[in-house]
Amino acid sequence: GSVVASYPYDDSPTHRLTGVYSKSADDEVFKYLAKAYASHHPIMRTGKPNCPGEEAETFPDGITNGAQWYDVEGGMQDYNYVWANCFEITLELSCCKYPPTSELPKEWENNRESLLAFIEKV
């Protein structure tokens, strides 16, 4: 996990593991939506999730193009965009995939304003 808003494409023509910006035709719209979420999140907006073992990982403005972060061939985000015209972003909300129940109220507070801002945009 991490704390970042990721947008298409997750796959790239070269299928390199990381570092390839795979721009969609709607790249500016996706960046706008990802920033709408990230800019209201207290951790995501810093671009420094500081996840254990990945402390050096950073995301400018708290967002990333999926394939630039890591290549995912055949992912749902790309499939939905290409085949269903669904503008989908992926939200990584925690360094921990399954945070303990005791942390859920804090996670809600971290994400509430982001979620409302995102809903207003879409």
Q: What's the number of structural domains? A: 1
The Rg value, from CA coordinates, equals: 14 Å
Examine the secondary-structure arrangement and name the CATH architecture: 3-Layer(aba) Sandwich
- The helix content, as a percent range, equals 25-40%
The overall average pLDDT, rounded, is 96
Number of distinct helices: 4
Pick out the low-confidence regions: none
* Fraction of residues in β-strands: 5-15%
The CATH topology corresponds to Aminopeptidase
Instruction: For the largest sheet, list the strands in their spatial order.
Output: 2-1-3
The largest pleated sheet is described as: 3 strands, mixed
Q: Roughly how many Å apart are the termini?
A: 25 Å
Characterize the overall form. globular
The SS-based structural class is alpha+beta
Query: Oligomeric state of the chains?
Result: single chain
Would you count the extended β strands for me? 3
**What is the CATH homology-level superfamily?**
Zn peptidases
Describe the fold and architecture:
It is built from four helices and three strands. By secondary structure, it is of the alpha+beta class. The chain has a three-stranded mixed β-sheet.
List the helices and strands and how they pair.
Blueprint: E1 2-7, H1 27-38, E2 63-65, H2 66-69, H3 76-84, E3 90-94, H4 104-121
Parallel strand pairs: 1-2
Antiparallel strand pairs: 1-3
Descriptive labels:
three-stranded mixed sheet; 4 helices; alpha+beta; Aminopeptidase; 122 residues
Task: Produce a short descriptive summary.
The active site is at 92 (proton donor/acceptor). With 122 residues, the chain is an alpha+beta fold.
